[in-house]
Amino acid sequence: MTRRTEWPDSAGYGAVGDAENRSGRAGGAAPEGGAAAEDGGGPLPSRAGSGPPRTPEEQARAICLRLLTGSPRTRRQLADALRERGIPEEAAEEVLARFEDVGLIDDAAFAGAWVESRHHGRGLARRALARELRTKGVDSALIDEAVGRLDPEQEETTARALVDRKLRATRGLDRDKRLRRLAGMLARKGYPEGLALRVVRRALEEEEGEDPEMLDHHLPDA
């Protein structure tokens, strides 16, 4: 039966399909019997008496498969893991290149799925999503392409939904405090100041009939 590995947390998009079954095309036969007992690139035992991988390439394959079975990873994340475990750079590059060839590593797909998931799951805006992808080592061009699929209208719709969920919690506060709290919440999720103020102002107008001129303030300094 094919086993699919889903995104962790709220990121429920873009599974890496059946990593062990495909590893035979990734430079060697897939070890039988499942994932490694430890995350440190240890053996993937199948039968009594089977030994650990003997070459750096075999060790690198085992480590990568173990990590990809847990969740999709970028090439840099896997490269960092191999380096931390003492895999020689030449062996690591060979295995990573092979995994890219067969589609087990796909940074473009990773970035697209990450944007889709984190926007809908956490309400993050393009700026915050780009920042997260940079920390995972995704190339700038791939980041631009992925966040570019999130159009401004969708971003504003999501911002409004976030504000609507928080409006009730701000009732009883004065106007300025409501504005700062709600706009600050959007700013922390990566929304630009102008968009944040516009969305909050409109929400308050609809709820309380506020005068838009009275709400035309700037976000406070962090």
Automatic annotation (TrEMBL):
Positions of the UniProt region annotated as Disordered: 1-60
Gene name of the encoded protein: recX
Span of domain RecX second three-helical: 106-146
A Pfam family the protein falls into: RecX_HTH2
Gene3D superfamilies linked: Winged helix-like DNA-binding domain superfamily/Winged helix DNA-binding domain
The protein's name: Regulatory protein RecX
Limits of the RecX third three-helical domain: 155-199
InterPro entries per record: RecX_HTH_1st, RecX_HTH_2nd, RecX_HTH_3rd, Regulatory_RecX, RuBisCO_lsu_C_sf, WH-like_DNA-bd_sf
Domain RecX first three-helical: 60-98
Taxonomy, superkingdom: Bacteria
Primary location group: cytoplasm
Family: Belongs to the RecX family.
Organism: Streptomyces yunnanensis
Function: Modulates RecA activity.
Keywords annotated in UniProt: Cytoplasm
The keyword Cytoplasm is annotated on this UniProt entry: yes
